[in-house]
User: What shape does this take?
Amino acid sequence: MSQRLPRLAVIAVAAGAFSGLFGVGGGSIIVPLLVLWLAYDERVATGTSLAAICFIAVGAAAVHGLLGNVDLLKGVLVGVPAVGGVVAGTALQQRI
Assistant: This one.
């Protein structure tokens, strides 16, 4: 377990930095590193990444909001329909 914590910290910092800079970080950073560095099953890595993204996204959105970079209405208009994509994508991922 002692070797896992530093690797998890590196993954977390990389995902947070990429999320803040580019709006991505989960699927492109967390999942591959959990699979390659820590031998997570792909489904567990995906679920773990999605759980972590909740915290990453709230933090990044809060900072961008404080800087005046958030259009909340448009965020809702994009986010609410995306829930359907999440459901469809999760169902597809479980079948592949």
Notes: The first helix runs from residue 4 to 22. The radius of gyration is 15 Å. The helical segments are 4-22, 26-38, 42-66, 72-95.
